[in-house]
Amino acid sequence: MPRRDYVKTARPQAKPRKKAPVKAPFPWLVLTITAGLILIFGWFLWTINQQEPVTSTQQPPEVVKDELPERPTEEPYQYIRELENREVVVEVRELESRGPFQMQCASFRSEQQADAMRAQIAFAGFSSTIRRTEGSNGVWYRVVLGPYDSRRQAEADRNRLRRNGINSCQIWNWN
Questions:
Q1: Which of 63, 75, 106, 126 reaches 20 to 30 Å from 87, CA-CA?
Q2: DSSP string of the chain, one letter each residue
Q3: For the purposes of burial, counting CB atoms within 10 Å of the CB of 5, is it exposed (0-12), middle (13-18) or buried (19 or more)?
Q4: Burial of 153 (0-12, 13-18, 19+ CB in 10 A)
Protein backbone atom coordinates (compact mmCIF):
# COMPACT_ATOMS: atom_id res chain seq x y z
CA MET A 1 0.00 0.00 0.00
CA PRO A 2 1.45 3.31 -1.01
CA ARG A 3 2.11 5.83 1.58
CA ARG A 4 0.72 9.25 1.41
CA ASP A 5 2.79 12.32 1.98
CA TYR A 6 0.75 14.58 4.15
CA VAL A 7 3.48 17.18 4.57
CA LYS A 8 3.39 18.56 1.05
CA THR A 9 -0.37 18.96 0.81
CA ALA A 10 -1.71 22.43 1.14
CA ARG A 11 -3.32 23.34 4.32
CA PRO A 12 -6.68 25.05 4.22
CA GLN A 13 -6.25 28.71 4.84
CA ALA A 14 -8.02 30.28 7.72
CA LYS A 15 -10.81 32.67 6.87
CA PRO A 16 -9.91 36.25 7.62
CA ARG A 17 -11.80 37.66 10.55
CA LYS A 18 -14.15 40.50 9.96
CA LYS A 19 -13.03 43.55 11.76
CA ALA A 20 -15.55 45.35 13.87
CA PRO A 21 -16.73 48.60 12.25
CA VAL A 22 -14.88 51.59 13.58
CA LYS A 23 -17.23 54.10 15.12
CA ALA A 24 -16.64 57.66 14.10
CA PRO A 25 -15.97 59.96 17.01
CA PHE A 26 -18.75 62.30 18.01
CA PRO A 27 -18.43 65.61 16.08
CA TRP A 28 -17.85 67.84 19.09
CA LEU A 29 -16.17 70.52 17.02
CA VAL A 30 -19.08 70.89 14.60
CA LEU A 31 -21.58 70.89 17.45
CA THR A 32 -19.64 73.58 19.32
CA ILE A 33 -19.33 75.85 16.26
CA THR A 34 -23.04 75.48 15.43
CA ALA A 35 -24.09 76.28 19.01
CA GLY A 36 -21.76 79.30 19.03
CA LEU A 37 -23.24 80.65 15.79
CA ILE A 38 -26.77 80.23 17.10
CA LEU A 39 -25.87 82.09 20.30
CA ILE A 40 -24.23 84.95 18.36
CA PHE A 41 -27.27 85.25 16.07
CA GLY A 42 -29.62 85.34 19.08
CA TRP A 43 -27.48 88.02 20.79
CA PHE A 44 -27.53 90.08 17.54
CA LEU A 45 -31.33 89.92 17.33
CA TRP A 46 -31.66 90.88 21.01
CA THR A 47 -29.41 93.95 20.58
CA ILE A 48 -31.36 95.11 17.53
CA ASN A 49 -34.60 94.83 19.49
CA GLN A 50 -33.19 96.88 22.40
CA GLN A 51 -32.11 99.88 20.28
CA GLU A 52 -34.16 103.05 20.18
CA PRO A 53 -35.82 103.84 16.84
CA VAL A 54 -34.02 106.54 14.89
CA THR A 55 -36.05 109.70 14.44
CA SER A 56 -35.30 112.27 11.79
CA THR A 57 -34.33 115.69 13.08
CA GLN A 58 -34.86 117.43 9.76
CA GLN A 59 -38.03 119.39 9.29
CA PRO A 60 -39.81 119.16 5.94
CA PRO A 61 -39.50 122.36 3.90
CA GLU A 62 -42.37 124.75 4.25
CA VAL A 63 -44.55 125.14 1.18
CA VAL A 64 -45.58 128.68 0.42
CA LYS A 65 -48.61 128.70 -1.84
CA ASP A 66 -48.86 132.45 -2.36
CA GLU A 67 -45.42 132.91 -3.90
CA LEU A 68 -45.71 131.30 -7.30
CA PRO A 69 -43.44 132.43 -10.12
CA GLU A 70 -44.91 134.79 -12.66
CA ARG A 71 -46.35 133.31 -15.78
CA PRO A 72 -44.32 134.19 -18.84
CA THR A 73 -46.11 136.50 -21.22
CA GLU A 74 -44.42 135.14 -24.29
CA GLU A 75 -43.75 131.53 -25.22
CA PRO A 76 -39.99 130.89 -25.17
CA TYR A 77 -40.21 128.45 -28.08
CA GLN A 78 -40.95 129.62 -31.60
CA TYR A 79 -41.61 126.27 -33.25
CA ILE A 80 -45.11 126.18 -31.78
CA ARG A 81 -46.14 129.23 -33.79
CA GLU A 82 -44.40 127.86 -36.88
CA LEU A 83 -46.20 124.51 -36.68
CA GLU A 84 -49.65 126.04 -36.30
CA ASN A 85 -49.62 127.39 -39.84
CA ARG A 86 -47.55 124.61 -41.47
CA GLU A 87 -49.25 122.49 -44.10
CA VAL A 88 -48.22 118.89 -44.66
CA VAL A 89 -48.54 117.45 -48.15
CA VAL A 90 -49.22 113.73 -48.36
CA GLU A 91 -49.11 111.84 -51.62
CA VAL A 92 -51.87 109.26 -51.90
CA ARG A 93 -51.50 106.44 -54.43
CA GLU A 94 -53.78 103.58 -55.19
CA LEU A 95 -52.10 100.20 -55.16
CA GLU A 96 -52.68 97.93 -58.08
CA SER A 97 -55.25 95.30 -57.43
CA ARG A 98 -53.90 91.92 -58.41
CA GLY A 99 -57.32 90.59 -59.06
CA PRO A 100 -59.98 88.88 -57.00
CA PHE A 101 -58.91 86.67 -54.10
CA GLN A 102 -60.32 83.53 -52.56
CA MET A 103 -59.76 81.94 -49.18
CA GLN A 104 -59.49 78.16 -48.90
CA CYS A 105 -60.00 76.88 -45.38
CA ALA A 106 -59.78 73.12 -45.89
CA SER A 107 -59.49 70.30 -48.37
CA PHE A 108 -60.92 66.84 -47.64
CA ARG A 109 -61.29 63.46 -49.33
CA SER A 110 -64.84 62.99 -48.04
CA GLU A 111 -67.78 65.30 -48.56
CA GLN A 112 -69.02 64.80 -44.97
CA GLN A 113 -65.83 66.32 -43.52
CA ALA A 114 -66.13 69.27 -45.91
CA ASP A 115 -69.75 69.81 -44.80
CA ALA A 116 -68.63 69.78 -41.14
CA MET A 117 -66.02 72.47 -41.85
CA ARG A 118 -68.58 74.50 -43.80
CA ALA A 119 -70.90 74.33 -40.77
CA GLN A 120 -68.13 75.64 -38.47
CA ILE A 121 -67.55 78.54 -40.84
CA ALA A 122 -71.30 79.22 -40.97
CA PHE A 123 -71.41 79.39 -37.15
CA ALA A 124 -68.64 82.03 -37.36
CA GLY A 125 -70.94 84.12 -39.59
CA PHE A 126 -69.50 83.51 -43.09
CA SER A 127 -70.91 81.80 -46.14
CA SER A 128 -68.69 79.30 -47.89
CA THR A 129 -68.94 76.87 -50.79
CA ILE A 130 -67.65 73.36 -51.35
CA ARG A 131 -65.88 72.73 -54.65
CA ARG A 132 -65.33 69.24 -55.95
CA THR A 133 -62.05 68.90 -57.86
CA GLU A 134 -60.68 65.87 -59.65
CA GLY A 135 -56.98 65.55 -60.24
CA SER A 136 -54.32 62.93 -60.78
CA ASN A 137 -54.38 62.05 -57.07
CA GLY A 138 -58.15 61.59 -56.76
CA VAL A 139 -61.23 63.58 -55.77
CA TRP A 140 -60.93 66.45 -53.27
CA TYR A 141 -63.62 68.61 -51.66
CA ARG A 142 -62.35 72.15 -50.99
CA VAL A 143 -64.08 74.59 -48.61
CA VAL A 144 -63.71 78.06 -50.18
CA LEU A 145 -64.78 81.60 -49.24
CA GLY A 146 -64.83 84.48 -51.67
CA PRO A 147 -64.31 86.10 -54.12
CA TYR A 148 -62.82 89.15 -52.39
CA ASP A 149 -62.02 92.35 -54.30
CA SER A 150 -58.90 93.06 -52.20
CA ARG A 151 -56.50 91.04 -50.13
CA ARG A 152 -57.23 93.32 -47.18
CA GLN A 153 -60.87 92.17 -47.04
CA ALA A 154 -59.74 88.54 -47.16
CA GLU A 155 -57.22 89.16 -44.34
CA ALA A 156 -59.93 90.75 -42.19
CA ASP A 157 -62.21 87.72 -42.63
CA ARG A 158 -59.33 85.31 -41.97
CA ASN A 159 -58.56 87.12 -38.69
CA ARG A 160 -62.21 86.84 -37.62
CA LEU A 161 -62.13 83.12 -38.43
CA ARG A 162 -58.95 82.70 -36.37
CA ARG A 163 -60.66 84.31 -33.38
CA ASN A 164 -63.38 81.64 -33.77
CA GLY A 165 -60.82 78.80 -33.78
CA ILE A 166 -60.49 78.16 -37.54
CA ASN A 167 -56.77 78.58 -38.22
CA SER A 168 -56.18 76.69 -41.46
CA CYS A 169 -57.36 79.29 -44.02
CA GLN A 170 -55.06 80.41 -46.85
CA ILE A 171 -55.58 83.34 -49.22
CA TRP A 172 -54.92 82.79 -52.95
CA ASN A 173 -55.61 84.54 -56.22
CA TRP A 174 -58.90 83.58 -57.80
CA ASN A 175 -58.47 81.01 -60.55
A1: 75
A2: -PPP--SSSPPPPPPPPPPPPPPPPP-HHHHHHHHHHHHHHHHHHHHHHHSPPP---PPPPPPPSS-PPPPPSS-S-SHHHHHHT--------PPPP---EEEEEEEESSHHHHHHHHHHHHHTT---EEEEEEETTEEEEEEEEEEESSHHHHHHHHHHHHHTT----EEEE--
A3: exposed
A4: middle
The lowest-confidence range among 90-94, 116-120, 131-135 is 90-94
- Which is more confidently placed, 123 or 65? 123
**3-state SS string over 83-117?**
HHCCCCCCCCCCCCCCCCEEEEEEEECCHHHHHHH
Residue type, 40: I
Three-state SS letters, 52-65: CCCCCCCCCCCCCC
Mean per-residue pLDDT, 20-43? 91
Q: Between 11 and 48, name the one with better pLDDT.
A: 48
